[in-house]
Structure formats: C-alpha cells, structure tokens
C-alpha cells in the first residue's frame, strides 16, 4: 500500500465503528435527523469514514455506487458547522450538474434542523443569478469545477480564503472529464489548512496523483474491490438477434413487474426513439441525455423520482452519482464500450441494501464487449429465461410503434430546420411559410 495511505485496519486505527450513528460520534441533533430520514444504521462507508472525519483527518473513500457516501462526508461537515458556524464553510466538487443538485438536496435534508444554506454553482444557469446567491453567504457550495473557477476569477467579492472543508466527489470521473486544470486552479486559492475528503469508485493513477496534491496524511477507507457490484444485485444477460432488439425490450418490460426501470442506451437518438416507441405502446417513459436543455434534464429526473414516469431512458450522463432511490431494474439496451461503465450503470439499482435486477441485452454483434464485462466482474452471468414465442408475438405491434416514432423524429427534425431558417435575417421578398411544430411526445417537460 502506498505510504500516503493509512489503511482503516492499521494498528493505530480507532476501534471498529459502532452500529449506530451515535456510536460513530455524531451529535444527538444529527442522529435524530438521520433517524427521521430513515437512516437507522450506518452503511459500511459511513461507518468507516465518519469517525476519521470527526477526528479531523483527510479521508479517501473508495466505495461502490449507491453506498451512502454523500452522507459519509456531509454529516461530519454539518457537525463541524454546528460547532463553528461561518459562511463558505465547505465546497463540494461534482462532475455533473445533476450530481451537484443531488448532493445539495442531501445537505439540505441532513441540515434542515439547523437551517443549513447551500448554493449550487453549475453551468447552464446565469452567472449573475449565481453571484447573487453567493452574496447571501451560504454555508455549503456545491459546484462543477469549471463554473466555480468562473466565479473565483470574475465575481467581485467572492472568495474561498476561509474555506474549512473541501470535497472531491466522483474524483475518477472528475478527472476523466478533463477537469484537472480547473481543480488545480481551485486548489491554489483555497486554504492549505483545511480538511479534504476525496471519494471515488476506483483508484486510478490520475486519482492517486490528485490525492497527493490535495490531501495531507489521508486515511484510506475502502468497502469495495476495484470493480465490484453489491451482493443484492441479480445480474443477467439476454442473447437475442439484433433485428428483434426492440421487441425483446418490450417483452421484458411487460414480463417483469418493476415499479421503476432505467434503460441505458449508447446515443441520444436511440434514447429519444425508444422513449417515443414505448409511449406509443402505452408505457410511461421519459428520456434523459446530454443534448437536452438543463431544465428538461432536471424535469426528467424529477418526474422519474416522483413516480410520474416509471421508465427512464438514459445515456451515460445519468449512469453515475445520481441519487435515484428504489430503482427496481436496470436494462442495458446497448452494451457500454468501456466495461467500467457497466459497473456504474447497474449501480443505479440494489442501492443501500435493497435488492435489484439488471439485464444486459447481447446481440450477435456485442459478444466481445459482453465478454469483457464478464472478465472485469470475474464471473459469468446467468442467462435471463424468456418465452421467445411470446416475445415474438409482440413484433408486429412493436414494429408499428417504431415506425411512428421514427416519423415523429423526422417531423421534429424538419420543424427545427424550418425554425432555424426562419430565424435568419430576411433580405426582402415573401416570408417563408412556417411549419407548425408537431407535438413532442418525448418532451420531458410534459
């Protein structure tokens, strides 16, 4: 083990963590809050990380997705804030806008009894509105690195010189998304005397380099192997001909009783097409991908979390870090190109001790990609049993739903092109006749 890490089972470690939040060292107010939120027993990462955090140590936490790591760093920060309240007490960096919003929601729930104030600093929102929010001096800032740097460099009066806590969440993904330079800029303007927490699903060479630059004598707590899934996740594959892929997807959704399902695809277009197809067949489906405007992305998450939609069609923008509770099933409609993304996708189900199911659809063109996943997991998955005759009986209806979905997408694309042409400055002559935009059945704002 590298010298910069102190393992949580080293000789000078504190005694094994207790089985309650009180035994971990949390104050009665936060113990009561945790209990009211249904957190009766600490998760393994919470039990390992919280005692060290309360001792004032820098912490590196390696944990599976869905392990409860947000509370593992939020609770110690809130307890320290109770003891020494001040504005700009902590800053949390997250790789995506959605994850930043989820973290802020967790802080607000855990800090509700002390009127904790948070501020979300992400792209897609006016700088001026965020500057006004920062002027109100929140306790906790949750930000994406690029936008936080924008405010550090351009917002008059804003400073993190008195910051007490600094958190890097999903550190491996922060670095994979090329936020390294922005993180370096932030590290140069925050106090060297601070407490830092770094959480990551994996310990890569980039993450190891970052921790050496940002943490001092950290303790490393690890409750997962490098690439692992939780024991309550039941993983399966389904081998099928590529030309019947949509038909078998509909069969799975009909056959399996699931209150909530996430279907992962490889492209934004596939996400939109499948969402329309499923709606044509009467399913309550909604898309989420990177080409949607921020309000619609948040609207999709809100509707799915609130139960207004039972099926979320998503690209990998949604595959990590989003706290979407009680997802019953994950379907990999398209196999991810990078095997590690499989771990993050299926981590959306079987969270925090609950059971869940994942099914990966494998066509004749996907065998090599699928075999890489089994090598990564170190085991072979069971084939999901289906009645192929029953599945094929759906093919005619599904084909018609696909045809309608494709036509709708073509009409939407044509309408967008017409609007773009109409927005150009006119040089005289008759104005172009506008086409009325068709109703977007996949519009997540509905």
Please characterize this protein's 3D structure.
The protein is of the alpha/beta class. It folds into 2 domains: 6-222, Rossmann fold (3-Layer(aba) Sandwich); 233-404, P-loop containing nucleotide triphosphate hydrolases (Rossmann fold). Helices cover 42% and strands 14% of the residues. It has helices at 21-24, 28-36, 44-54, 69-83, 97-110, 127-135, 145-154, 171-176, 180-189, 205-214, 245-255, 268-280, 294-306, 339-346, 367-377, 388-392, 395-422; strands at 6-7, 59-62, 90-93, 118-121, 140-143, 165-168, 195-200, 219-222, 233-239, 261-264, 285-288, 311-314, 329-332, 356-362, 382-383. The strands form 2 sheets. Strands 1-8-2-7-6-3-5-4 form an 8-stranded parallel sheet, sandwiched between helices. Residues 414-446 are annotated as: Disordered. InterPro entries: DDX47/Rrp3_DEADc, DEAD/DEAH_box_helicase_dom, DEAD_box_RNA_helicase, Helicase_ATP-bd, Helicase_C-like, P-loop_NTPase, RNA-helicase_DEAD-box_CS, RNA_helicase_DEAD_Q_motif. This is DEAD-domain-containing protein.
CATH topology of the largest domain: Rossmann fold
The rough form would be described as: globular
Name the CATH superfamily classification of the largest domain. P-loop containing nucleotide triphosphate hydrolases
Strand line-up across the major sheet: 1-8-2-7-6-3-5-4
Q: Could you tell me the strand content as a percent range?
A: 5-15%
Largest sheet: 8 strands, parallel
Number of domains: 2
Helix content: 40-55%
Integer average pLDDT: 86
**CATH architectural category of the largest domain:** 3-Layer(aba) Sandwich
Total number of beta strands = 15
């Amino acid at each position: 083990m590298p010298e910069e890490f102190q393992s949580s089972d080293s000789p000078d470690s504190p005694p094994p963590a207790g089985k309650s939040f009180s035994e971990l060292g949390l104050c009665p107010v936060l113990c009561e809050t945790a209990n009211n939120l249904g957190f009766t027993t600490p998760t393994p990462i919470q039990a390992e990380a919280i005692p060290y955090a309360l001792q004032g140590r820098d912490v590196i936490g390696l944990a599976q997705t869905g392990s409860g790591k947000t509370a593992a760093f939020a609770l110690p920060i809130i307890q320290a804030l109770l003891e020494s309240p001040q504005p700009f007490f902590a800053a949390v960096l997250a790789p995506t806008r959605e994850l930043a919003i989820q973290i802020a929601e967790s802080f607000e729930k855990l800090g509700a009894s002390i009127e904790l104030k948070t501020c979300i600093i992400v792209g897609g929102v006016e700088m001026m509105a965020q500057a006004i929010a920062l002027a109100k001096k929140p306790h906790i800032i949750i930000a994406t690195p690029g936008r936080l740097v924008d405010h550090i460099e351009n917002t008059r009066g804003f400073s993190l010189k008195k910051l007490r806590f600094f958190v890097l969440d999903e550190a491996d993904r922060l670095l994979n998304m090329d936020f390294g330079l922005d993180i370096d800029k932030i590290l140069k303007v925050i106090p060297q005397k601070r407490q830092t927490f770094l959480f990551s699903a994996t310990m890569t060479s980039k993450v190891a380099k970052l921790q050496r630059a940002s943490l001092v004598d950290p303790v490393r707590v690890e409750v997962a192997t490098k690439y692992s899934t939780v024991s309550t996740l039941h993983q399966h594959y389904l081998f099928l001909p590529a030309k019947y892929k949509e038909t078998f997807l509909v069969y799975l959704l009909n056959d399996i009783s699931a209150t909530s399902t996430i279907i992962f695809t490889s492209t934004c277009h596939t996400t939109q097409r499948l969402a329309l197809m499923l709606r044509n067949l009467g399913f309550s489906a909604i898309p989420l991908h990177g080409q949607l405007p921020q309000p619609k992305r948040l609207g999709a998450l809100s509707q799915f979390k609130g139960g207004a939609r039972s099926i979320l069609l998503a690209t990998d923008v949604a595959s990590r870090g989003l706290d979407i509770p009680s997802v019953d099933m994950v379907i990999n409609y398209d196999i991810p190109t990078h095997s590690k993304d499989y771990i993050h996708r299926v981590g959306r189900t079987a969270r925090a001790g609950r059971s869940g199911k994942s099914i990966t659809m494998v066509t004749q063109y996907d065998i090599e990609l699928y075999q890489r996943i089994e090598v990564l997991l170190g085991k072979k998955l069971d084939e999901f049993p289906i009645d192929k005759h029953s599945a094929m009986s759906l093919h005619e209806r599904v084909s018609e739903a696909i045809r309608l979905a494709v036509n709708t997408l073509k009409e939407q694309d044509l309408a967008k092109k017409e609007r773009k042409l109409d927005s150009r400055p006119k040089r005289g002559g008759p104005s172009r006749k506008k086409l009325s935009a068709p109703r977007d059945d996949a519009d997540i704002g509905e």
